[in-house]
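Dear all,

This email documents one entry for the complex benchmark we are building for the journal club exercise. For each entry we list the sequence lines for every component of the assembly. Then comes the predicted three-dimensional structure of the complex as a token string, followed by one or two observations. Please use this as the template for your own entries, and keep the labels exactly as they appear.
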Amino acid sequence: MMTMRNLLLLAVALALLVIVPPFLGLGWQNMLVNVLIASLFALAFNLLIGQAGLLSFGHAAYFGVGAFAALHLMRAIEGGLPFPTPLVPLAGAAAGLLIGLIAGYFATMRSGVYFALVTLAIAELFHSLAPQLEGVFGGESGISSMRMPWNGIVFGSMLEVYYLTLAWVLVCGLALWAYTRTPFGRLTLALRDNEQRVRFLGYSAHTAKVIIFTVSAMLTAVAGSLQAISIETANYSLFASNVSAQVVLQTFVGGSTVFFGPVIGATAFTLFSFLVSDLTRSWVFYQGLIFVLVMLYVPTGIGGVIQHHIHNRRQLDWRNMAGHYVLAFVGALLLTAGVVFLTETVAVLFGEDYAMVRHNAEGGLPPFELFGASWNPTGLLTWLLPIVLLIGGGALLIRARRRISTIWDRKGPSNATATEPLLAGGAK
Amino acid sequence: MTATPTTQTALRLAAITMSFGPIEVIKGVNLDIRAGERHAVIGPNGAGKSTLFNLISGMFAPTSGEIFLNGNSIAGLSPHLINRAGLARSFQITNIFHRMSVFENLRIGVLARHGVRYGLFRPVAGMRQVNEETAEVLARVGLESRGHDLAGDLTYSEQRALEIGMTLTTGAEVILLDEPTAGMSREETEKAIELIRTVTEGKTLLMVEHDMGVVFSLCDRVSVLVYGDIIATDTPERISANRAVQEAYLGEEAAS
């Protein structure tokens, strides 16, 4: 029954993904391409952390390798190689497989922190070598190419790129999901749970981890090559640690214990940066704040929270709870408003522009513009407003949270079993 | 003890030593386990029983000496190769996959026996033979009704039964059980003895056991390990009559 419902949900989502984009503007189409690429990247990354329990801090390496491999093939096609453009990501997959195999062989010799550090070091190796390798990575400026037409498809419009990306992400996502149902997929979970016991059951844990790492690197590289197709260029900044960090943030905020969690995280962050990055320069700060809050209060991520509610949907007193959820939402909104107001005020007051204004005003504190109004830096209202928002929102949220947790404690026994298909750790 | 191992010897330890730094924990152990027998290793705390198991099963490599499984040297091999050679072990501290279902805990080993260790191209749900055999083991250890529950949710004695079940799944003929009844009540112990008796039928069993009652009702022979050295190997009756053993071990326990 659960599976039926999931299938239906997937079908609806798929239909929307196919039907809606032609009606969107170029900016939104581009944003959706980025969402798809980030989703595949996060799904492939989560194969390691969510299923095998291996935290890689250097997945930018395989994303970048995929992008460069795709661009090299695209350049060859430009030069006359009769290779179908839609299959360019195969070059990324091949390169990711090879590099993942080599890097994975060494990285998976260790676990835990040491594994994370080795993956970080490998990515840094690429980051520092790439600008010097003119032939492979095009030096500091990187390499560029053009999408060549194939079989009447020009690949000139963003929409064509979108459908190509969608097809690849769906195929790879499906493959990753099928993976969880194979014997090796089950072994992957066993490794996360208890690597030692796996060894004593006749499995070479190292061999298994190398294979997992290679699969993850290969699909990460496919995501990288899709980005190369989309923006037709790549340079060494793809190997930067912030690319590696971004996928970690997205996966954990989305929920690494749920199969679709990383997709939720990738979508949320991509959408967030699309909507907010033009409005404020503090958006990276907000991103970090969201990550910290999620880790502190909902460590299973957005996906984990959703799954928890779905599992317990029959035991929960929804009628009683709805009001408190609305209250919690209002509280969170007020709190957010307070934080944003305070952050933006501080950003203005300590910014370069305001320093200039102050210079012109000979050291005084002239009023500043924010949210379409003028504020006096020494005015009571300027500081009272965010404080009221913070205290009011915080109080509301704490109160609602307490009520909600009482209702959760009162609910009947959970009907969650080890066989819920959504749960990566339990799919049978 | 340098004679070539005969076919009747399932497991042979020849002058095994093991040192952790300057401390020699195992001091030249010689031991022959006959094919098909149930053999217990007893000894006071810190005698090196668990270390001995870790050496045989490949967790550590011995400092010197040889270990033969069915005549083939296995000393220093990795655990997975020793398992594939036909030896499986359980652990003193329950060592299962807590976040997976009981059924899946057992299936991992069954898959290994069927050689689909790294299978990536077929769903496991469709592997009838594997799933049937898993269900069989599940029934043999008396956990039929718990198959879909998370292993971490089992009671202690159920987890111990699962632990034994997992040891059986890879199809090994030589089974090492490390204190299978530790921490169990009298009644649970009785059940565990029966379980071990039936599931090791026709196999070779080597077990570490503290409870002399268990040893008497289950084992054909007993070896006494004291300070890294085997001081006697004999039938349970004669071991309990042995003066040196009484002084070294049984007397100590009676006094405590």
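Observations: The two ends of chain A are 15 Å apart (CA to CA). The first helix of chain A runs from residue 2 to 19.
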